[in-house]
Automatic annotation (TrEMBL):
SMART domains named among the record's database cross-references: HTH_ARAC (SM00342), REC (SM00448)
Organism: Paenibacillus chitinolyticus
KW Transcription regulation (keyword) present: yes
SUPFAM superfamilies: CheY-like, Homeodomain-like
Protein name from the UniProt record: Response regulator
Length: 543
């Protein structure tokens, strides 16, 4: 803690330094001033918690100092030490928050007791201040969540949330009897790339920043409230009063966003609807205003719920290009993929208008097709691999790539889509290469362990693959099933061993992995067309 001694007599200040047990009271720094004016300068600079002052001083006295403290630093604790037994001075001390009035000559016990009381009082109040600050911080954290919940509920079920209406009146200045309002949606889909890159994956911070900017304008004018709509994870603005001036208000908000974040955003705006019952309809209108605007032209940033005549985009289906793109991905050729995607964008570029609604439809088609491809390309892939492929393939929230003019950038979109498909193709080739290597590893294992008792279950356990997967892939790669492949290896080895006349048939049978001689003979005859003995006689080497 810090203390300040204020007295025009130096020997009094020196006496106080010696008589007070500063360390016991937790005071580590002590400053001095000769009068009230000098004391105010020290207080402003050093922020002492305890001020011990005389009352009768030149330039500016103790009463004036106490009066200044009450206005400018009310948390500081003051103790008066005076040589005047004057009731008016005592009254002023009490009036301006002094904790004690001690008469000179100074009694050490009395001044130490007064200081202990002042320190305890300051510590108690500081604890309360800290708790109050913590409560305010917590409330500031909770308030946005509370309002998001309240206003989302009001939008979803207007008739069931009268508390939200009362809270809007109390905290946001909603005039009693408000009969209409407009809903605006701040588009996160068509945000400029530089703003998206600035916040990266921290969308919560982006939402927090944008909502704060919107509410700064709305709350200041008592015109509305911005909040995060839980049902769709969008930023909505509920605006009341002077419906014709709402577009201009949104324009001011957009300029505020530009100043703070160096970027503008699109707003979809509904017409005026009854409050609160018309909120759901207003939301749908604002959403349609965004989804149905022509992304090929920049007609402004505020899009009202009036669909321009003739904006009926020609239907173009992504699914019409599915087979060409799928085949290109399977080919593993980046050039073929680029060519297939180019054919799709040739069709897109022939359109006179493209809306967000149309892009969302294409995205749904593309996601559906991509899902089918992944199931086809990786039928036996572990769930971790499938999740990785889906993530790398670009499924997720729609973000429309815009150019510097704020219109749809087909070049950027084409590049992103091509990259997505090329990455999927690379993942497929990598998987196929690894699968092929595994199957050949299995074949090599059979060739060196043919003499052991081997089952399909043993192979599956050794190579951490399912039996069904091994059977299918082995047949695809070698044109025969695993058991017949192993049987052919054993019979070939048996043929060589039977060239040795000193080995009995039973010994040969065991040496190639058959514990049952009769079964071995049966398999041998099925493969070669003759029994082991017949084969040996026909192929006896000439000595």
């Amino acid at each position: 803690m810090i203390a300040l001694l204020v007295d025009d007599e130096k020997h009094v200040r020196s006496a106080l330094r010696m008589l007070i047990k500063w360390e016991e009271h937790g005071i580590s720094q002590i400053f001095e001033a000769e009068n009230g004016e000098e004391a105010i300068e020290v207080i402003r600079r050093e922020k002492p918690q305890i001020i011990i002052t005389d009352m009768m001083m030149p330039v500016k006295g103790g009463v004036e100092l106490l009066q200044w403290l009450q206005t400018n630093d009310p948390s500081a604790k003051s103790i008066v030490i005076s040589g005047h037994d004057d009731f008016s001075l005592v009254r002023h001390t009490i009036q301006y928050g002094g904790t004690d009035y001690i008469l000179k000559p100074i009694d050490p016990d009395q001044v130490n007791e007064a200081l202990a009381k002042a320190v305890a009082s300051w510590n108690k109040e500081e604890h309360e201040r800290s708790r109050s600050v913590e409560r305010n911080i917590e409330m500031n954290r909770i308030k946005p969540v509370y309002w998001d919940r309240q206003l989302s509920g009001l939008l979803d079920e207007p008739a069931q949330n009268p508390v939200a209406v009362r809270d809007l009146q109390a905290d946001w200045g909603l005039p009693a009897g408000t009969g209409s309002c407009r809903i605006a949606i701040l588009s996160m889909v068509t945000m400029e790339r530089k703003l998206k890159n600035k916040f990266g994956r921290n969308t919560d911070l982006l939402f927090f920043s944008l909502i704060n900017i919107c509410n700064e304008f709305l709350h200041r004018r008592s015109r509305g409230a911005a909040f995060r709509y839980w049902s769709s994870n969008e930023i909505l603005l509920l605006v009341w009063g002077e419906p014709d001036k709402v577009p201009a208000l949104l324009g001011d908000i957009n300029e505020g966003i530009l100043t703070a974040l160096h970027s503008r955003l699109d707003f979809g705006l509904s017409r005026a609807h009854a409050f609160p019952d018309g909120l759901p309809a207003a939301y749908r209108e604002a959403r349609d205003a965004l989804r149905q605007r022509n992304l090929l032209s920049r007609g402004g940033w505020i899009h009202e719920a009036v669909r321009p005549e003739g904006l009926q985009p020609r239907r173009l289906r992504f699914s019409d290009f599915e087979e060409a793109i799928r085949t290109a991905i399977r080919s593993g050729s980046a050039e073929e993929i680029s060519s297939a995607v180019q054919a799709w964008f040739d069709g897109v570029r022939s359109l006179s208008a493209i809306t967000l609604e149309q892009i969302e439809q294409w995205r749904r088609e593309a996601d559906t097709m991509r899902g089918r491809w992944i199931e086809d390309f990786f039928p036996d892939g572990p769930e971790e691999l499938l999740a990785e492929v889906r993530s790398e393939s670009g499924s997720g929230q729609t973000i429309v790539p815009l150019n510097e003019q704020g219109t749809l950038s087909l070049a950027d979109w084409q590049q992103e889509l091509t990259h997505s498909f090329v990455q999927l193709s690379k993942k497929l080739l990598k998987r196929q290469h690894r699968e092929k290597n595994v199957i050949y590893d299995i074949a090599k294992y059979l060739q060196t362990h043919y003499h052991e008792e081997i089952s399909l279950q043993d192979i599956a356990g050794r190579f951490f693959l399912s039996r069904e997967y091994i059977s299918r892939k082995f047949k695809q790669e070698f044109g025969t099933n695993l058991s017949d492949y192993l049987g052919a290896i054993r019979i070939d080895k048996a043929k060589l061993l039977m060239m040795n006349p000193n080995l009995r048939i039973s010994q040969v049978s065991e040496m190639v992995g058959y514990s049952d001689e009769k079964y071995f003979s049966k398999v041998f005859k099925k493969v070669t067309g003759c029994s082991p003995n017949e084969y040996r006689k026909a192929n006896q080497p000439i000595m």
